[in-house]
Each structure stands twice: as structure tokens, then as C-alpha cells.
From TrEMBL:
A GO BP entry: glycolipid biosynthetic process
InterPro entries: DPM1-like (IPR039528), Glyco_trans_2-like (IPR001173), Nucleotide-diphossugar_trans (IPR029044)
Lyase among keywords: no
CDD domains the record matches: DPM1_like
Keywords annotated in UniProt: Glycosyltransferase, Transferase
Enzyme Commission number(s) of this protein: 2.4.1.83
Family in the record: Belongs to the glycosyltransferase 2 family.
Class in the EC hierarchy, top level: transferase
Protein's UniProt name: Dolichol-phosphate mannosyltransferase
Length: 242
């Protein structure tokens, strides 16, 4: 069994899906890909199913009935991965905001620096974001700094969604108790790994905004990250597992 799995959640990514799959498989690190699709009406899942004939035994597809949020899609993927002997499990967007060329960097942080969680960081060395309006850059940057202040995690990009987990992290985190679905999901996973004293390493990457398809960002997702983190921090004081 291949050691590494890249999980890519999708909803209406027909414009990107074949490109991202081929780009990931073209990397020097051999990986498997799991697409978790929320029943996209644009035919994303059907395209993936057709590509499974091109990439047999290394491209996998899980279709969920409803659009239920990024966090639950990843949890679905984590459970699928843990039922199989993968050692390294990646989170990655379908829209090329995460550069497939950086997969090897995250993997090396785990294998060479013994990180349990490698974070593709936009902010560990300045601000490395391309094609975002300044308002969105500032909002994301300030949110990450706010989360770092509240949680005391030694992570500059707390909302980063391009990461690599060693399976031991996912085995120790109670996935049934993951609370959040948007940006706050990314914070929650890092915070729980931090509380369990796993080694976290930030790897500098350049984030490039999508050029095809429609962004799934919303004010509700951002609000969840800003206000949900307070609740999360408070619960960590009073509950051994939350």
C-alpha cells in the first residue's frame, strides 16, 4: 500500500479537477488521491470516475449526499484513510491555491524533521499570497495572528488548509468531536494536535488564489474562525477531551 494519501474535497470543481489530479500524480513523490465530493451538480464526481480508469488503484472517490462543509469532508476522508495503512495524510484544495509542487516539502518536513503535522504556511516568512485583494489578505493575516494570540499555538498560519498529518495525529484526535466546518476546522485540528504535544513544523509556501471556478469563502466561515476559537479555547481549560 502506498504510504501517502492526498485528500481533496470538492464541490463544483469541474473546471479544476482533472488538472489538479494530473498535477498531483506528476510529482516525484508517489501518492494516492482521495476525492471527497459533495454530490456536485456540475459533474465533478463523474469526471473523477472517468479518470479512475486512467489512474487505477491510486485515484479514489467518495461521494456524499449533501454539501455539508469542508470540515466534515476532511473528517470523512480521515476515517477512510485510517481504515487503510497510510502513514502520511495530506489536506489540499482542488483549485491550485495549494501548489502541487509543495507536496514534497510537507512530506520532507514529516520524514526529515520528524514533524507530526507539517503546515504549508503563507505567513511564516512574511506574507506569501498571490492574487488576493488587500482586504482579504489583511483579514486572513489578522485572523491567524488573533488565533495565535488566543490559543498560544506557535504557528503563524493557523488557518492554513494545506497540511500533512502523520497518521498518529489523526488516531489520537477524536474525530467524532470535531466541531467546526470552515476555517475554524483548520484551527481546531492544529489546536488539538498542539494540546496533545505533537511536533508541528511550518513550511513556507506561496498561496495563489483560484483562477478557475468559484470561491467557497463566506462571511459565515470567517466568523466561525474568529468567534469559534474563543469557545474552543475555553473548552480546552475545562474538558480533557472536547
Amino acid at each position: 500500500m502506498q504510504q501517502s494519501l492526498v485528500i481533496i474535497p470538492t464541490y463544483n470543481e469541474i473546471e479544476n479537477i482533472e488538472h489538479i489530479i494530473r498535477a498531483v500524480f506528476s510529482q516525484s513523490l508517489a501518492v494516492h488521491i482521495l476525492i471527497v465530493d459533495d454530490n456536485s451538480p456540475d459533474g465533478t464526481a463523474q469526471k473523477v470516475a472517468a479518470l479512475q480508469l486512467v489512474f487505477p488503484d491510486k485515484l479514489f472517490l467518495e461521494i456524499r449526499k449533501n454539501k455539508s462543509g469542508l470540515g466534515t469532508a476532511y473528517v470523512h476522508g480521515f476515517k477512510w484513510a485510517l481504515a487503510r495503512p497510510y502513514t502520511y495524510i495530506f489536506e489540499m484544495d482542488a483549485d491550485f491555491s495549494h501548489n502541487p509542487n509543495d507536496i514534497i516539502k510537507l512530506h520532507q518536513a514529516c520524514t526529515q524533521q520528524q514533524a507530526h503535522l507539517a503546515v504549508g504556511s503563507r505567513y511564516v516568512k512574511g506574507v506569501n499570497v498571490v492574487n488576493w485583494p488587500m482586504k482579504r489578505v489583511l483579514l486572513s493575516y489578522i485572523a491567524s495572528k488573533y488565533v495565535k494570540l488566543i490559543t498560544r499555538m506557535p504557528i503563524d498560519d493557523t488557518t492554513a488548509g494545506f497540511v500533512c498529518f502523520h497518521r498518529s495525529v489523526l488516531e489520537k484526535i477524536n474525530l467524532e468531536k470535531i466541531q467546526f466546518v470552515g476555517y475554524a476546522f483548520q484551527i481546531e485540528m492544529k489546536f488539538k494536535a498542539y494540546l496533545k504535544k505533537f511536533k508541528i513544523v511550518e513550511v513556507p509556501v506561496i498561496f495563489t488564489d483560484r483562477t478557475r471556478g468559484k470561491s467557497k469563502m463566506s462571511s459565515g466561515i470567517i466568523s466561525e474562525a474568529i468567534f469559534g476559537v474563543l469557545s474552543m479555547k475555553l473548552k480546552s481549560w475545562f474538558y480533557k477531551e472536547f
